[in-house]
Amino acid sequence: MGSQIGVTGLAVMGQNLARNIARHGFPVAVHNRSESRTKHLIERYGDEGDFTPATSLEDFVASLDRPRRIVIMVKAGGPVDAVIDELVPLLDKGDILIDGGNSHFEDTRRREKALAERGLHFLGTGVSGGEEGALNGPSIMPGGPDDAYAPVAEILTTIAAQVDGTPCAAHIGPDGAGHYVKMAHNGIEYADMQLIAEAYDLLTSAAGLSAPEIGQIFRQWNEGDLESFLIETTATVLGHTDAATGRPLVDVILDEAEQKGTGRWTAQSALELGVPVTAITEAVYARALSARKDQRTRASAILPGPSGGSAPDGFVDAVRDALYASKVVAYAQGFEQMRAASDEYDWNVDPGTLATIWRGGCIIRARFLDRIKEAYERSPELPNLLLDDYFRDAVANAQDAWRKVVHTAVDLGVPTPAFSASLAYYDGFRRERGPASLIQGLRDFFGAHTYRRVDREGVFHTLWSEDRREVSAD
Ligand SMILES: NC(=O)C1=CN([C@@H]2O[C@H](COP(=O)(O)OP(=O)(O)OC[C@H]3O[C@@H](n4cnc5c(N)ncnc54)[C@H](OP(=O)(O)O)[C@@H]3O)[C@@H](O)[C@H]2O)C=CC1
Ligand SMILES: O=C(CO)[C@H](O)[C@H](O)COP(=O)(O)O
């Protein structure tokens, strides 16, 4: 008997996934382009389970039971194609390739189609949880044909995080669905982290608190509605002291946020779909602005801000409430985007399933996800989370604090792009009538783009450069 599954690509994610699989009793073959990683895994962790190391892809494939199940855990982009190209000649019809990296969903759609033509199955599979999650139970989002998922379902659901006895792994839908929702998960992760960073900035710049003091505040917040992996991690990072300087570590980390692309892809796809995901997009822009360190340094010397001012009473609690309300908006936007993509690509993705499998294992895991799951149980076709009673009340209860925080930020010159964009979205969303009528009027004036009326059916144009009569443009 051979190995039930193989993992190729043994950097942090692949190594830990392979260990997770082995620890659950599944014999696993392991391979990496550079042999040193395979050696390291076997030397260090070989006694954790039934590993079969291979130095060549030929030996790796030969060591697998049929249908062969192969997890590819390499750098996203060209390396995935390179590995697939090397593997394909070694495989037989019905074998299953599982790309567990952060691949772009359009690449996944292309790969799935090309491999299907050769009789091979391809599962574009989002895996979240970082290094620790991969080892102890990630959230797993496979996308691809039912036939491909069935033979790997047992392994994936077993190694995933478990919440209330439910695995944080589920078949998301066909072709690119799994990688799409992983991308959107990361987009929400960007928004979540940006909101946390803005809260930290407000408590530093407006309230004058130190990093360890703010860490304590986050620790308290983690006992309430905000309880989540990212809030808990924020408390830990803010409380950590740099050994070299004795200062809070966060004060000596360079303030330039890097990005690998999934947040940007989420915003790009949202633009294509016409879904307003303002919190996610502002988070991507905020990282881009942070990376312009040289320009910011020059600007800081010459561009004035407001002089003086301080945070009002009750500011810390207000920031907590504003953070929660903004987070609701960010998730509402992300979930609406996933629904729109599912409709566009005919994936039939169930948002309730996503809320269920993101309750554990992944980076955005949070108490909050239970509330989202319940909202979709109440109303599976819910178009926007803000229309659910629980979230409506949560945001309504927070709105005074939310406005106070954004107002204070503007007064004091503290940038809060995600807090502000979320509040503006909320105010735009709750308006039955907005100012887009004027935009339509302007478009009709300069480009004869026509408009519709509120009082009768049809399409109209005003003869602006003639006698300004309205004519039908149907
Ligand atoms: N790190 C994280 O927290 C998370 C990462 N991911 C995703 O999981 C995937 C793996 O991530 P991670 O473990 O961080 O590793 P990296 O993204 O750093 O990729 C390194 C791995 O890719 C292999 N590789 C690179 N180019 C090639 C190639 N041309 N042919 C064969 N192998 C190649 C490397 O092999 P070699 O050792 O020979 O260089 C190594 O095993 C990525 O898509 C990542 O985005 C998903 C969730 C979380
Ligand atoms: O997928 C992940 C977690 O779910 C990775 O941690 C992600 O790559 C982080 O993205 P970025 O480097 O762009 O911040």
Automatic annotation (TrEMBL):
6-phosphogluconate dehydrogenase C-terminal domain location: 178-465
Keyword Oxidoreductase: yes
Catalytic activity reported: 6-phospho-D-gluconate + NADP(+) = D-ribulose 5-phosphate + CO2 + NADPH
SMART domains, alphabetized: 6PGD (SM01350)
Signal sequence region: none
Pathway: Carbohydrate degradation; pentose phosphate pathway; D-ribulose 5-phosphate from D-glucose 6-phosphate (oxidative stage): step 3/3
InterPro entries: 6-PGluconate_DH-like_C_sf, 6PGD_dom2, 6PGDH_C, 6PGDH_Gnd/GntZ, 6PGDH_NADP-bd, 6PGdom_BS, NAD(P)-bd_dom_sf, Pgluconate_DH
EC number: 1.1.1.44
UniProt entry tagged with the keyword Magnesium: no
MF term (GO), any: NADP binding
Binding site for NADP(+): 9-14, 32-34, 74-76, 102
GO biological process, one term: D-gluconate metabolic process
Alphabetized UniProt keyword annotations: Gluconate utilization, NADP, Oxidoreductase, Pentose shunt
UniProt-listed Gene3D superfamilies: 6-Phosphogluconate Dehydrogenase, domain 3, N-(1-d-carboxylethyl)-l-norvaline Dehydrogenase, domain 2, NAD(P)-binding Rossmann-like Domain
Binding residue positions for substrate: 102, 128-130, 185-186, 190, 260, 287, 443, 449
Matching NCBIfam families: gnd, PRK09287.1
Family: Belongs to the 6-phosphogluconate dehydrogenase family.
PANTHER family: 6-PHOSPHOGLUCONATE DEHYDROGENASE
Function, as annotated: Catalyzes the oxidative decarboxylation of 6-phosphogluconate to ribulose 5-phosphate and CO(2), with concomitant reduction of NADP to NADPH.
Subunit annotation: Homodimer.
Name of protein: 6-phosphogluconate dehydrogenase, decarboxylating
Organism: Actinoallomurus iriomotensis
Gene name for this UniProt entry: gnd
